[in-house]
Amino acid sequence: MSVVTDTGLQVERTLLAWVRTQIGLGVFAGLTLHWLDLHHASALFMALLPLLLSLALYCGQRRRFQRQRDMLIAEQGHPSILPVMSVGIGVSALALIAVFAI
């Protein structure tokens, strides 16, 4: 039986997934600004919330990368729930605002 060693690729893929999430939130914020003249307050909130989420993810990116790398080296660890839950709640809030405002 051969042993598969991960030289950090799993951490890199996870990092790239978070970067794609940040880019998607930024694109959504930019597209929402298109509706600013039709839906003033709701469009502004819908643009600011994803930008703030993206900024928060960016600020914690290095810490998450190092933590995941250390978990792989130690072969044990716990997933970080706060970033996943914050993005999930933020996207759910955006969906509710979009349903009721548009």
UniProtKB/TrEMBL annotation:
Residues 6-69 form the DUF202 domain. It is a multi-pass membrane protein. This is DUF202 domain-containing protein. Keywords: Membrane, Transmembrane, Transmembrane helix. The keyword Membrane applies. It comes from the Bacteria. InterPro entries: DUF202.
